[in-house]
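Why show two proteins at once? Because comparison is the fastest way to build intuition. When a single record is shown, students tend to memorize it. When two are placed side by side, the eye starts asking what differs. So, the first record is below.
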Amino acid sequence: MNIRFWGVRGSIATPLTNADLSDKLETALQAVLKAGLTSDRQIPDFIRSLTWHIRQTAGGDTSCVEIQAGDTLLILDGGTGIRRLGLDLMHSYMGKIIEAHILLTHTHWDHISGIPFFVPGFNPNNRLILYGPFPGLEKRIRGQQVPEYFPVPLPPAFKFVQLKEKDHFKIGEVCVETFPLNHPGSSHAYRITYSNKTVIYATDSEYKDVSAKALKPFTDFFHNADLLIYDAQFTLVENIEKEDWGHSNTFYGIDIALESNVKKLIFTHHDPAYNDKKLWEILQKAVEYLNINDPDSNLQVFLAYEGMTLTV
């Protein structure tokens, strides 16, 4: 399965600010002076040597992940990141029929607000199927595009498949399972298996009781996944301060991934208050936590960013 991240923010879209851009430039120029560059040819290597939070950005679009599993195109959530995904699909398909299966975790706006701007929806020949294991899927999505909120109704290319809270079904050769998470108004994880590889998308969930017994339903669902995409919107302290907000942190994510025997763990749904430097610092603390608690572990941890690609 080929995976690409198009939106990694939680709660609300968060564009890079001019102040943050200026800070990146100032830090990079200071590094230039320290490095003593004397030739244009040195610039590419120098840029690659900069730490991630200086040379890149996590991005500001909300939740959207693309998975290509053989001939099957899956899209996880329809946050603002789905707009750019739609433009990319129009370019890559070059007029061919687009069939996409859009799996929605829930209908909070940061997970559906990009759907009205998903350009493939305006071609009636395309086949775009929206799935959701929460009540009233079709009513909720159409309600976002009534005239009071949006000038264009939901295009006819969209179809709906109402799922159950704990469902198990196939899309072509792809096996999909759903599982309820702990989030205000409900949210659901997806376990996606294709060609003996498994990806789990588990965003928007809180784990207040982290005892092995309380976590067992989750660790059973996550068990042996090749990749777990995990909501780590808060720090551990913020998780305690913001009880019942429905999100988690990197430390809990590592504990759960280790207990579940997960191979790769990607943190996503970044808080809109966090700039790139803050996110980088959180990742470094997470790596340190893993090394202290299980130095022999083969678990790999990553920070999701727009444009990130990987294959499992």
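Second record. Ask yourself what differs from the first in the token line.
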Amino acid sequence: MANTELIEKINKLKKEKNAIILAHCYQNPEIDFVADYVGDSLGLSRLASKTDAEIIVFAGVYFMAETAKILSPNKTVLLPNKNSGCNMADMINLKQVKEFKEKHPGTPLVCYVNSTAEVKAQCDICCTSANAINVIKSLYMQGAKKVLFAPDCYLGSYAQKNLPDIEIISYPGYCPTHLRIIPDEIVKMKIMYKDAKILVHPECHQEVVKLADFVGSTTQIMQYCESTKHKTYIIATEKGVVDRLKRDFPEKEFILASSKLVCHNMKWNTLDDILNSLLHNQHEVTVEEEIRQKALSSIQKMIELK
């Protein structure tokens, strides 16, 4: 089936079923033709929770669909392709997070939203890559001398560099995609494109982060490119961000820092998958209510921070 026909069928079907389609910005850009919202995982889930849609189709990975279910328990949440997982989220499970906490009794646990519902349910407060520093700082202001951070040790290291007065003990998880970029590649890019701005995601190795002109989440990187007047940008995050920037701002030049910056799990979802998901209510994501309530509490504490 041609893409145009697929897109028409999906857009018609989502209206008939009162469905909303969310697309993470690491997805293949063709998904945007049927998406109601494109963005980062938590932002998309929050937007969906405020709609009257009965069905949420989340073109992303499993933990993102879980987060949507946590925030919208009365909506049906569908994952187009059941193979869409996250290597980093899979690095810590319920047993491992409990063991991590038991090694440091009484120490608050900050949990990155890139984690499963059962891990979120074990933490004191969640964070995103955009607000990790502020979340940890809030615990310091409440008297904490140290915090636990899971699962991304590189985001934890980035926060530690910016918060020297509090000890951050990080779980040894990481994003394989962001670690594929090495400092030498950035150095070479800086030589080739002398006037370019280097934009880096904090999940990257800290030696890469040190070379950045700007460090931020995917949304923050995209906002920076929109709001600044530089001509050339070197982007050290997943390829999907560069694809969208090139499309949305053709007058500017966007260069992917490395051809290896592709998250294959994020590319699993296709227009065919989305159509089948809508047709058959395929791959519904559920979260046990006790876990959902605990995970929701950790998310709400983060949202309530000023």
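One difference worth noting in the second protein: Residues 289-303 form the longest helix (15 residues).
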